[in-house]
């Protein structure tokens, strides 16, 4: 792995576009396909990896991300209804999660993640 970028996002286009607009241009790279994102993780170190809970086999994806990006913070966005499935992953395969749609304080926290360096 050659260099550390800010944030890799695995999310639907609408969510990724909203994140890019709020976090700042050039501070994240977004993929809608988890396999493409995993490929990008082979080549670079990322400070933060953000996944949406709507990904198929979220737990398996989180484990794969953790193996490829040991030093990254792994975060998940989930709907309120998805929180019971995501909460048990905290501390095991993810560092934290956010309920989507995000409150202003959550946007600030994600923006800070996006500028975190490793």
* The level-1 CATH class: Alpha Beta
CATH topology tier name: Rossmann fold
Low-confidence stretches: none
Numbering strands along the chain, what is their spatial order in the largest sheet? 2-1-3-4-5
Number of distinct helices: 5
What share of the residues lie within helices? 25-40%
Oligomer: single chain
CATH architecture tag: 3-Layer(aba) Sandwich
Strand content range: 15-25%
Computed over alpha carbons, the radius of gyration is 13 Å
Structural class: alpha/beta
Task: Looking at this protein, list some descriptive labels.
118 residues, Rossmann fold, five-stranded parallel sheet, 5 strands
Question: What layout of secondary structure does this protein have?
Answer:
Blueprint: E1 4-10, H1 13-23, E2 28-31, H2 34-43, E3 45-52, H3 58-68, E4 73-78, H4 83-86, E5 96-99, H5 104-114
Helix pairs in contact: 2-3
Task: Outline the structure in words.
With about 120 residues, this protein is α/β, with parallel strands linked by helices. Helix content is about 40%, strand content about 25%. The chain has helices at about 15-25, 35-45, 60-70, 85, 105-115; strands spanning about 5-10, 30, 45-50, 75-80, 95-100. Helix 2 (about 35-45) packs parallel to helix 3. The two termini are about 15 Å apart. The protein has 5 helices and 5 strands. The chain has a 5-stranded parallel beta sheet with strand order 2-1-3-4-5, sandwiched between helices. The chain has one domain (about 5-115): Response regulator (Rossmann fold, 3-Layer(aba) Sandwich). The chain is globular and about 30 Å long. The mean pLDDT is about 90.
């Amino acid at each position: 792995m050659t260099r550390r970028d800010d944030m890799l996002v695995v999310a639907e286009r609408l969510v990724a576009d909203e994140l890019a607009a709020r976090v700042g241009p050039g501070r994240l790279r977004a993929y809608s396909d988890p396999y493409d994102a995993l490929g990008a993780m082979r080549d670079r170190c990322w400070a933060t990896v953000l996944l949406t809970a709507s990904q198929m086999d979220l737990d398996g994806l989180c484990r794969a991300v953790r193996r490829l990006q040991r030093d990254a913070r792994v975060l998940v966005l989930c709907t309120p209804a998805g929180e019971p499935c995501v909460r048990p992953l905290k501390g095991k395969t993810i560092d934290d999660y956010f309920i989507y749609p995000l409150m202003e304080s959550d946007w600030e926290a994600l923006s800070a993640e996006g500028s975190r360096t490793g």
